[in-house]
Amino acid sequence: MTKQNSNVVRLALITASLLLVPLLAMQFSSEVVWTVSDFVFAGTLIFGTGLLYQLAVRMTPDSTYRVAVGLSLATTFVLIWINGAVGIIGDSDVNMLYLLVPMVGIAGALIAQFRPLGMARALFAAAFTQALIPVIALLVREPDFSPGVVGVFVLNAVFVALFVGSGLLFQRAARQQSSSVEDPQFQK
Predict the structure, then answer these.
(1) How far apart (Å, rounded) are the C-alpha atoms in residues 12 and 107?
(2) What are the distances in angstroms from CA 142 to CA 96, 118, 148?
(3) What is the Cα–Cα distance from 105 to 27, expressed in whole angstroms?
(4) Backbone angles phi, psi at 87, to 5 degrees
(5) Which residues contact 84 (CB under 8 A, 6 or more apart)?
(6) What's residue 84's pLDDT?
(7) What is the largest CA-CA distance in the chain?
(8) For 146-171, how does the pLDDT look when each residue is reduced to its tens digit (9 = 90+)?
(9) Range 76-85, long-range pairs (CB < 8 A, 24+ positions)
(10) What's the predicted TM-score (pTM) here?
(11) Closest Cα to residue 163, out of 133, 122, 134?
(12) CA torsion sign, 93 to 95 to 96 to 100?
C-alpha cells in the first residue's frame, strides 16, 4: 500500500472513530439524537477537511503555507459545524448566507491556482464576506440573534480574525517564496 493510500485509510479510520463518539453517546443519553443524515454530514465534513489538508501538504513543503491551509480549513470546518448544529444567527434561514464564506474562499483559491499571494486575497475576501453576513442579516430583517446581537458580532469577529490570520500566513508564504527565488543560491 502506498503512503498516500495509507494516509487516506488512516483518515477514514479517524473519521469513523470520531463518529463513534455520538453513536455511543446516543446509547446512554437521550440528549444526543443524531439521524443518518447527521452522520453523513459530519463524516463528509471531517473526511473532506482532512483530505483537503492532505492534498495541500502534498503540494508544498513550505511549512508556513501548510499552517495557513490548516488554519483556513479548521476555521471553515468550525464555521460549518457550528452553523449546521445550532446556527450562528439563531434558527434563522439567514444562516444559509454563511455558505457564501467557503464558496468565496474556494472560488478565490481556484482563481489563484493555489498560489500563496492569491490564497491570501481569497482568505481576505472570505473574512470580508464573514463580516458582512450579520450586517446583511440586520438589514434584511430582524433575525433571531439568540446569543444576542453583540454575541453574534463577537463570534463573527473571531471567524474574521482567523480568516485574516490565515491570509497573513499566506502572504508570508508568498514573501518567503519570492525571496527564495531571488536568492542567488537558489538560481544555480
Answers:
(1) 27
(2) 15, 36, 12
(3) 38
(4) 80, 140
(5) 41, 45
(6) 85
(7) 66
(8) 667 788 889 999 999 999 999 999 99
(9) 76/49, 76/101, 76/102, 76/105, 77/45, 77/46, 77/49, 78/159, 79/130, 79/159, 80/45, 81/45, 84/41, 84/45
(10) 0.86
(11) 122
(12) positive
Task: Say what the pLDDT of residue 148 is.
Answer: 74
* Cβ atoms of residues 15 and 47 within 8 Å: yes
Q: Per-residue pLDDT tens for 9-49? A: 999 999 999 999 999 998 998 888 899 999 999 999 999 99
CA distance 148 to 161: 20
| Sign of the dihedral defined by the CA atoms of residues 116, 121, 123, 124, in that order | positive
Overall average pLDDT of the 162-186 stretch? 83
**Where residue 185 falls among pLDDT bands split at 50, 70, 90?**
very low
- 182/33 Cα distance (integer angstroms): 57
Residue 183 above 80 pLDDT?
no
User: From the centroid of its chain, how far is CA 79?
Assistant: 7
- Rounded-to-integer distance, Cα 57 and Cα 52, Å: 9
Burial (CB count <10 Å: 0-12, 13-18, 19+), residue 7: middle
